[in-house]
Amino acid sequence: MKGAFIGSFRGIDDTELPAESRPIPGDYEAWVRTTLASLRPRDEGIVRFVRPRPTAAFSLQDTLHPHYKSVQNQVLAHGFAPVERSTGGRLAIFDENALVISILAAHPDPREHIIERYQIFANILANTLMLFGIDARIGELPYEYCPGRFSLNASGRLKLAGMAQRISRTSFQIEALICVTRSPPACTALAAAYAGLELQYDPHTYGSLTDVQPTLDYGQIKTTFKDAVTAALSG
Fold first, then answer.
1. Which CATH code of 3.10.450.50, 3.40.50.10170, 3.30.930.10, 3.90.1150.10 fits the domain covering 9-234?
2. pLDDT per residue as tens digits for the range 122-180
3. DSSP code of 23?
4. What is the pTM of this model?
5. DSSP 3-state helix, strand, coil percentages of the chain (rounded to 5)?
6. CA–CA distances in Å: residue 118 to residues 9, 47, 98, 125, 176
7. Cα 184 to Cα 83: distance, rounded to the nearest angstrom
């Protein structure tokens, strides 16, 4: 754990802010870039919990597609603000029905521990999902949105969470996007955008925690993840 995540961490919790006070997608991306650039050795790391505004997060690979501009306009018409993120993966579309957990920290050699960091974070998330009685598994589902080796799914059927990581010379960010409650607008926008980007996508793989455990609520889910991640980073 301590090789991949070094030092102490302070928490920021935006999830209980009024909707109009939550971070604007472009401002949040700018904060991530600025924070990564400013972190220095022995600086305290940050773990931030965000209830996002409607966002369409395009990867660098997405921006190279010849239909990118038209897909940008398409997601905007669906009510999702397009942003460009400097990570791998593919387009992810989400809103206030999701929970974002972002960890940023200085590191003497952030590239050395990329896979280990994914493995540790994925296991923290999977173990937390199991606390809700969910059969949580790590791995990519065929034709899921924003496919990834360290995606989290329920029983090999529904994608519940994905992860991305970005690295600078002296720092890293690893971020999880957890789908708490199903968002019909996000489902519709994803299907249209993936068709526009000519990507294979099976909408039946889109899932949320409350699809699997309907009695859960956002506050309960956020608090459980916050406790688990905070405990792991302080252990």
1. 3.30.930.10
2. 999 999 999 999 999 999 999 999 999 999 999 999 999 999 999 999 999 999 999 99
3. P
4. 0.96
5. 40, 25, 35
6. 18, 15, 20, 11, 10
7. 20
